[in-house]
Specification:
The chain is mainly beta. It is built from no helices and 10 strands.
């Protein structure tokens, strides 16, 4: 059964010594399927992916899969202490990137939860970024 939740997403990225931060508050859904939790929400202009929807698959283990659907579908696999090669699509084209999970914290309680991830992206040609994302959610008050 899907549960409507209020979601807050905070992210930070450091690339070439420049840092960028973003915060998004939105409505979404939390549901369980085959023993795993899924968190889904619609992107906005704040994230640069307006018109896209994102589904976070929380697990198995210390792995999070981010599937983004829209004009440019993408799938990132962020797994603690592992490097995963992923195809990242944008409106301007596709690129292969390596994603290495650095930190993973997940807490799911009845009606709320929190996910914190730290990871690096290797875009090739010496272009790298360090990223942190915190996603918290709570059941929507009716």
């Amino acid at each position: 059964m899907k549960q409507e939740v209020d979601i807050t997403i905070r992210s930070a990225q450091v690339m070439d010594g420049e840092s960028d931060e973003m915060e998004l508050s939105t409505l979404g859904s939390l549901y369980e399927k085959d023993g795993l939790h899924y968190l889904s929400y619609d992107e906005s202009e704040v994230t640069g992916f307006e018109g896209h929807s994102t589904v976070l698959k929380l697990g198995p283990g210390r792995c999070v899969t981010m599937n983004r659907y829209g004009k440019a579908n993408s799938k990132l696999i962020i797994e603690l202490d592992e490097c995963n090669s992923c195809l990242y699509n944008t409106e301007f084209g596709s690129m292969d990137i390596d994603v290495r999970g650095r930190q993973h914290e997940l807490s799911i309680l009845e009606g709320s939860g929190r996910l914190f991830l730290a990871y690096t992206l290797d875009l090739g040609a010496g272009i790298n970024s360090y990223n942190e994302i915190e996603v918290s959610w709570k059941a929507t008050e009716k």
